[in-house]
Amino acid sequence: MSRSATRHRTLALALAIGLNTGVLAAGYEFPVAGVNPAVRPAGAPILTEFNKDRAWYDQALRGISRPYPASLRFLEYQGAWHTPFNRPGMPPPYDIRGWHTN
């Protein structure tokens, strides 16, 4: 890519960022729960109970052999929020827990 094309792309990116910043500064509120963590949006769902059954623990501990290390005690306090620990990560060769194997 030529130096001129690189400059044009950089300028376009800077303008796009600048225009978006102006929209944000104008007071646009995103309709997504959690953007402003101090305020819960009206109508956002509320979990009143989260039961972790045997299947949940089996999924969370998949690929980890017994005896489980004490560092996994955090699972006892894990709620319904997102955690990358109990989701498949990168494929092999980085898949040390075997989530992507048949």
Overview of the structural elements:
The chain has two helices and no strands. It folds into two domains: 1-40; 47-102, no CATH class. The model has no long low-confidence stretch (mean pLDDT 79). The longest helix is centred in the first third of the chain and has 23 residues, at 3-25. It is mostly helical and 102 residues long.
Q: Secondary-structure map with pairings?
A:
Elements: H1 3-25, H2 54-60
Q: Keywords, please?
A:
2 helices, mainly alpha, 2 domains, flat, 102 residues
Can you give the helix content as a percent range? 25-40%
Overall spatial form: flat
Tally the structural domains: 2
Number of helices: 2
Largest sheet, in brief, is: none
Count all strands and give the number: 0
What structural class should be given to the helix and strand makeup? mainly alpha
- For the record, give the distance between the C-alpha atoms at the N and C termini, rounded to a whole number: 43 Å
Over all CA atoms, what is the radius of gyration? 22 Å
| Average predicted confidence as pLDDT | 79
Order of helices and strands: HH
Q: Unreliable runs, pLDDT <50, ≥5 residues?
A: none
* Estimated share of beta-strand residues: under 5%
